[in-house]
Amino acid sequence: MNTLANQHCIIIREQVTTISIEQLKASLDAFVSEIKKSDSSTMNITLIKQIVSSLTYFSSKNKQLAGSEFITHPLFIILRDSVVVDYLRQRQNKDISYELLSDLSALFANISRHINNTNTHLFKQLLFHQPLIDELTNCLNEIGINGKYLDDFLLLNSIHFLLMAYQYFNRLQSIANEYSSMTSMCLAVIKCLCSSYSIEMIKKLENNFSQKLNHDHILLLSTCPLYLKWYSTNRDLNLFLQIPRILLSPFTQWMINCPSDSIIYCSKNFGNILRHLHNVLVRPIEWENDNISNEEFYNDYCKLVSHWSSFLSSALNYTSDDSDIISIKRFIVQHLYDFTLQPNILNFMKTIPNLIPMLLQMTDVQQDETQLNTYRCLGKLMSEADIKTMASPSKITGVYVKFLTNTIDDPKKQGRFYSILLSLKNFVQHDQVKIELIKQNALPLLIRCIIEIEFDSIKIKPIVLEILLALSFNNDASSILRQNTNFMTTIRNLVNNIHSNKSNLQRAAETLLWKLDKEIEAITKLTNSKLHKYDIMISYSHSDRQLCYQIHERLVQDGFSVWIDRDNMHGATMIAMAEAIENSEFVLICMSDTYKQSVYCQSEAHYAFERRCHLIPLIMKPCYKPDGWLGIMVSGKIYVDFVKLEFSLAYEKLKKEINQYRQLNMNYSMVKSKENNHQDISSIISKPVEETSILSGRPSIIELPHCITQWTNNHVQSFFRTNGLDNTMFLLCSQLDGHRLLELYDICMINRESMYQSLKGELADVHHRSLPISDYLTFLHEIKPYLPLMHTTSQSVSSSLPSSRVCKLM
After folding, report:
1. Which SUPFAM superfamilies does the protein's record reference (predicted)?
2. What are phi and psi of 734, to 5 degrees?
């Protein structure tokens, strides 16, 4: 035993939390000196084991070794070259002390946990060492190709710790350009993960989550996928897609054979395998940003998400506050959220019975991460109708306001703050959520993020601007924003900053400024010119681009002049979009969940709607049904379903819709011309059959029942005629009875301005008549006495014969 080295080892262990930088440096210097003095190979190993053991213990308790004074200390360079690299090179030598290799690899992993943007360049000197990378890569290749060393747990442990050290690097976006030297290692890791040995491991797993796992399980099924999760944002798509193509099917088959209640007994190690495999099987790429469909994995994903839903159902049977149960629930919800990122699977999830009610139960779990992921799921899954039927929509916004308040000023919680904002962006599309956020004073928090310079301009500010843009469709919110001089000045500065390379930030600022400052002026300058530069403008979401491109190409082939933001997807300004809308005869609204959730798409559609453009809604995703602002906007219009119909049939239906509208417009223009010349129009065009019967054969005025829910269609006709609305509002309501008329009133009261625009547009498109604002307001006012008592727009009529205000007065 080396006496001097032993003394310093004792100091390091005894002063693990109090040792000074000077003392620690002196100890490391002494270790180097003693190693260099030693001539005996046996003594070297004994001495190094003693040193490594002490430093490994120290690094697990204290992060000082990650300081700039120590990372590249000669001791670590000696240990790297003389032990790690040399032992890996001699890995087939039975005399090698794999225990020392494992301990030293663990030491490197412990130190690497503290890599950050300030010390990255120093860590690179230690670990981005080509001989080390080459030997580790060779070892991984032998495992993946030949299954070597899978029974050598110490060597497998060493590889595990070294990969963990590198994956701490991979988490840092600042070193994304450093991966050229790591490509060979990445390929070797993928080879291991996709090997026949991994497949057999998955197939031979027991149907439970508490089974014993060996070191080969940990390395292949947990460490390898974890390393790949953080590898790089600029990954080769086909390279990473081979992982789900090879492993997804056996993994799914094993998973769905596990009983639902077995998840409650999931061990920590098995939980890691589930999490890490999930990341490379379910989230191998960002689907919205890559030119590929996830259809090839659809069936397996549907089976998996259904089974995860059954896991959630089982977990909810346990109401215990036990930390293990809470942890299980947390990671179930995390996995469910992963599936919501894929549009096709999201649509399938909406069909799973009781999934939304189960997630609503999870909002009561008192754990921030669980609550956050639960609301992230709900934000993707819930429709406007779901929000309205909630017992208290204010609960959602209350949680978000609490999260924002608790994290906005804490530098250590900025990652959490960003996640909260991303989640809130999904919810803020709902009108009820907008109203509650304003009530609960969320706007000042969001405005701070834009005005104050310490908030990140790359991540935080663009997301906040998108949330504010969504809120700006609420009149109260837009008024608050316009009146904040400091905020408006900041927005204008962001838009006018010609030196900015923050395209997302500038785009968001410009679109918001357009909404707050320029849109009203543009709409008031609405002209009736029939001359259009373009036949068609296509408004669509980036995730639906492939189908939209196909539609665009067919339209161009058929001679249509089409405007589409194809070459500069994320760069087209709102001004360019507005000019395209103003100069297009038709606007195709390409409807999907991602379209509705995009504030940019909403801005385009809203402006086209306000300009009274002829909108043609296209369905882009299976079973999609528009609701909320989009549902109001396309109300009464014929949808062209490009998913349900074959493409050629849907395209012909689209062309037919365009031609019919043009023919109707031409006939209407001819009628108007004849009217102006005081000629009889009957020979030119006859009124629509439906309208003719209404105006010529209408019944006489009859007495109305006291409550609207008792009205027949004849009563509805009489109501409109009595109030002088038979040539405007009644044309839109001719088929309604009292119950349906009440539903129309409820929709109007949720957003009176948008609904007026919707009704006005439908009346113009179908009946070629204008809807005076006075007629619309008369309808809303005159119907009030006939509403059921205690009726609000958020509740349905519970009784078939309720009392009304008129009844009460009598």
Report:
1. ARM repeat, Toll/Interleukin receptor TIR domain
2. -65, -20
Long-range CB contacts for residues 791-797, cutoff 8 Å, separation at least 24? 791/742, 793/746, 793/749, 793/750, 794/388, 794/432, 797/709, 797/739, 797/742
* Bridge partners for 587 per DSSP: 537, 615
pLDDT tens track for 33-62: 988 887 655 558 888 999 999 999 999 999
Mean pLDDT of the chain: 84
504: number of Cβ within 10 Å = 16
Residues with Cβ < 8 Å from 777, sequence gap 6 or more? none
Nearest to 376 by CA among 362, 386, 388: 362
Q: Which residues, in sequence order, are CB contacts of 578 under 8 Å at separation 6+? A: 514, 522, 607
Specify which residues 636 forms β-bridges with.
Answer: none
Least confident of 240-254, 504-518, 659-673, 729-743: 659-673
Residue 526 class from Cβ within 10 Å (0-12 exposed, 13-18 middle, 19+ buried)? exposed
pLDDT band, very low/low/confident/very high, at 692 (cuts 50, 70, 90): very low
Q: What is the pLDDT of residues 373-394, one digit of tens each?
A: 898 898 888 887 777 776 567 8
Short-list 145, 148, 144, 127, CA closest to 192:
144
Determine contact, residues 400/427, Cβ cutoff 8 Å: yes
Residues with Cβ < 8 Å from 103, sequence gap 6 or more?
49, 52, 53, 56
Helices then strands, counting H and E runs in the chain, come out as 43, 5
User: Mean pLDDT across the stretch 424-442?
Assistant: 88
The sheet that has 640-641: what strands, in order across it? 562-563, 534-539, 584-591, 614-619, 640-641
- Domain residue limits, the chain: 1-62, 443-524, 534-674, 694-809
- 673 band by pLDDT with thresholds 50, 70 and 90: low
Task: List all residues 6 or more positions away from 493 whose beta carbon is below 8 Å from its beta carbon.
Answer: none
Is residue 215 pLDDT above 50, yes or no? Answer: yes
Q: Work out whether the CA dihedral 580, 581, 584, 588 comes out positive or negative.
A: positive
User: What does the block give as tokens for 31?
Assistant: 């270790």
User: Mean of the pLDDT values across residues 656-677?
Assistant: 68
- CATH code of 534-674, in short, is 3.40.50.10140
d(CA 156, CA 449): 47
One DSSP character per residue, 152-212 reads -HHHHHHHHHHHHHHHHHHT-GGGGGGGGGGHHHHHHHHHHHTSHHHHHHHHTS-SSS---
Total number of residues shown for the chain: 810
Give the DSSP letter of residue 83.
Answer: I
For residue range 265-290, list pLDDT tens digits in order: 999 999 999 999 998 898 755 544 44
State how far the Cα of 566 lies from the Cα of 777, in Å rounded to an integer.
42
- Buried-state track 436-456, b at ≥16 Cβ within 10 A, e below 16: bbbeeebbebbbbbbeeeebe
Backbone φ and ψ of 617, nearest 5°: -80, 130
Computed from CA positions of residues 249, 250, 253, 254, in that sequence, does the dihedral angle turn out positive or negative? negative
Q: 22-26, 85-89, 135-139, 172-176 — which is least confidently predicted?
A: 172-176
Query: What is the rounded average pLDDT of the residues 208-216?
Result: 93
